[in-house]
Sequence to fold (269 residues):
Amino acid sequence: MKIGHIALQQALRMQRFFFSLRLRWMLPILFLLPLAYAQDIRNGEDVLRAMHDRYASSWYQTLTFTQKSTTYNPDGTSKAEIWHEALALPGKLRIDIGAPGDGNGYLMVDGTLTIFREGKESGTRPRMNMLLVLGFDVYHQAPQTTSAIVKAEGYDLGKLHEETWEGQPVYVVGAEKGDLSSKQFWVNKNNLLFVRLFEPTRTDPSKFQDIRFEDYREIAGGWVAARVEVYVDGKKTFSEEYSDIQTNAKLDPGTFDTKQFNSTHWEKP
Fold:
């Protein structure tokens, strides 16, 4: 009995010794893991890569929704319209303004904008939609492709700092701390979702618009910001509110074909 008791005590002492040894090795590793991750984000390209890697295997491929678009005028009045939008990632966006049968809207396909008025093509021009690129495409296409697009649009991926936005830590890419007059985008540090963009207005390049993705909702392995707000000089000028949000709907290829704009409309699943 006594021999067995001594053996048991020795076994317990050995067990505590090895546990203590393992703990000594594990604590530095556990401490360094988040530090190593933080050190891995050194510039804008790292941020874009991290965004892609977080969701590439799960993010939805198509998205459709109904959008209430409200324009806020300087005199205090506002005007609301109903838009119907469809996305196929990466690079494809269709907007039907009002009833689809009216033939009014836009197609944005791989950096080209085509405008339709009453069923007729009224113009086409190069146009990269950075909200599409940073809010959606980044999770589907190769990080180097997104980086090339962002650089070409004039964002300095070498500039990176951190801020707090709506109580959350964010990466700010494209500007130094305190600079709100350079092209830049903000990304939530925890969930790596795009939340804010500063870019010149199209009507007056000397003024910057502040575009915010709000009310994020988790859906189908990805996320959707159900509200978008645009501010100029601190005043809200435009907002979007999404409803009837559907992911991975089967879309006819003609949905994004300029020749089939009038005959093909996005369908609900």
Remarks:
- The CA atoms of residues 134 and 247 lie 18 Å apart.
- The chain has two domains: 1-40, 44-260.
- DSSP finds four helices and 13 strands in the chain.
